[in-house]
Amino acid sequence: MSDTDRPTLTKAPEMHVHYCEVEGCEKWGSWGNSSSKLVPVRWWCKEHFPEEFKINRPLNSK
Question: Do 29 and 43 form a contact (C-beta atoms < 8 A)?
């Protein structure tokens, strides 16, 4: 599908805004994580991202 085959937008796309969850921090929450698909994603800035989510795993080569 090329861009010329797409229908014209009728409204502006929505932007999902999420900030760091640490109280008082007003930085953009660019580091999100969730323990499963049933749990909502929580967002943190790089400085406040919890250690328990920092796992050094190799990427799947599939």
Answer: yes
Instruction: Identify the pLDDT of residue 15.
Output: 79
Residue type, 56: N
pLDDT at 54: 73
Q: Which domain holds residue 39?
A: 16-50
Phi-psi domain of 21 (left: phi exceeds 0; alpha: psi -120 through 50; beta: other): alpha
Total number of domains in the chain? 1
Q: φ, ψ for residue 42 (rounded to 5)?
A: -105, 145
**In this structure, are residues 46 and 54 in contact, taking their beta carbons and an 8 Å threshold?**
no
pLDDT tens profile 1-53: 566 787 887 888 787 888 999 999 999 888 888 878 898 888 999 899 888 77
